[in-house]
Amino acid sequence: MEHPPLTEAVTVPLVDADPEAPRIAVLGAGSWGTTFAKVLADGGADVLVWARRREIAQEITETHRNSDYLPGVNLPRNLRAHDSLERVLAGAQQVYLSVPSQSLRSNLASIRDILPPHVPIVSLMKGVERGTGLRMSEVIEAELGVERERIAVVSGPNLALEIARREPTAAVVASIHRPTAVAVAQVAANDYFRSFVNTDVIGTEFGGVLKNLIAVAVGIADGVGYGENTKASIITRGLVELTHFAVAFGARAETMSGLAGLGDLIATCESPLSRNNTAGRLLGQGYGFEQVIAQMNQTAEGLASVGPVLELAQSKGVSMPIVEQVARVLEGTLDPRELAPHLATDSDEPQAE
User: Fold this and answer.
1) Which residues are paired to 128 by β-bridges?
2) What is the rounded distance in angstroms from the CA atom of residue 228 to the CA atom of residue 28?
3) Which of 126, 211, 231, 316 is catalytic?
């Protein structure tokens, strides 16, 4: 069966915010939520962000800064914030979710009865729920009881601080309902941020989840002091690993070679701005799991996703030596200096690449 084009560009004219501008709600005022709100506002949307902490909401609205999460970045005037979910959601034409993956369900319970009807719901999160193994779009569908066609996910090589500084990049917007993906992509575009669309939600989400785990492994190698050969080997074998995993769950292999797979993998593994890479580097330097958590100002989703991903892999018979060794480092049963997941195999026979 011939598939339609997997990914296609969506072009949108840039407009200044005005009373006719689309009204967008973003739930979550961390670095990524604020950054994506800026992307939307810079594209001409009227954006209201929900911040759990009132002082952050006030700072965003009154000074156009979020110094806790995006120090030194000026936010556009058509981006405001509030600590009331009702206020933020009222009249929203699209709703974006950017909260920690493990607290998504409880946050959804808070908005179930006040969510505007029929609007697209967009996940900016990259994680798998502990206990259920559900992707974020699946949690949204189950907890809110909304049609799957209303849900979209965004993923790609998107380091928040670089985008907040208006450095050019691109992302993928995926939904099983192409018009939903297109509607989101038209709003999530400006002169430095371009959105592409596809219908492979599974591949787009799993690409965003699994690259975090590979980035932790690369960070561990970096923290130990290993050089570029080791890290390049982990990245390339990691791409094979995440592709096998995603395809086993119904994703398209070509998604893994695009922005949501390889693109995100390179950005996350190579940049010191990556929280998962930073967490791995601290592990490689000998810090224990609890010490790493204490030092991280923000959530490193890869650490929370290791267990659920391995359970899912086991259910499909997928071998994931990189993730398995990261899990052992987190458990304290493997010395980071012994990390060599790209060398691990169940056979002494030479393996095909």
Assistant:
1) 135
2) 36
3) 211
- What are 158-170's pLDDT values in tens digits? 999 999 999 999 9
Tally the C-alpha atoms within 13 A of residue 183's C-alpha that lie toward its C-beta.
21
* Phi, psi dihedral angles at 177 (to 5 degrees): -105, 105
How distant, in Å, are the alpha carbons of 136, 226, 321, 352 from that of 131?
13, 34, 22, 34
Task: Read off the pLDDT of residues 266-325 as tens digits, 9 standing for 90 and up.
Answer: 998 988 878 888 888 889 998 887 787 777 655 566 677 888 899 999 999 999 999 999
40 and 188 Cβ atoms separated by less than 8 Å: yes
Distances (CA, A) of 36 to 155, 174, 213, 260: 11, 16, 23, 16
Residue 127 backbone class (left: φ over 0; alpha: ψ -120 to 50; beta: rest)? beta
Please confirm, yes or no, whether 211 is among the known catalytic residues: yes
Domains of the chain: 8-199 (3.40.50.720), 209-343 (1.10.1040.10)
